[in-house]
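Reply to dn_fold:

You asked what the input looked like. This is it:
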Amino acid sequence: MGSENLFHKNRERLTSGFARKSATRSKAYQPSRPHILIVCEDSKSSVFYFEAMANDLRLSAVNVRGGECGSAPSSVLEYAEKQYMQSIKDGDRYDIVYCVFDRDNHDSFETTVKQIKTLNANKKTVLCDYHNPLF
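and this is what came back:
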């Protein structure tokens, strides 16, 4: 009568569904932040503004360039395209490129805005932000 050892049979039945899982931890998933380039026409106020904003928002993947391209909107776009192509060659491609320029009496303003729209026919990679002094 006592040879069946009922205590151990009951224990095996109860613990069979609670087998120990592996002791390895799963890797934490953190989505990557977009790599952003901001090209400004001036070298002081806009650059300082965007760098301070990136620091306040703790965005480490933001590069701000300014003053190296001239003040015409077409030259800002050309410089942004050169920096974008260079980033592709370096293997650290920008996800978004912002071109920031003033809406002055430049002859190339309208054509530059149209060029940016045609560049973005498939994807929104290059974005335009212009400042109108009379708003």
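Residues 41 and 130 are 10 Å apart (CA to CA).
Hope that clears it up.
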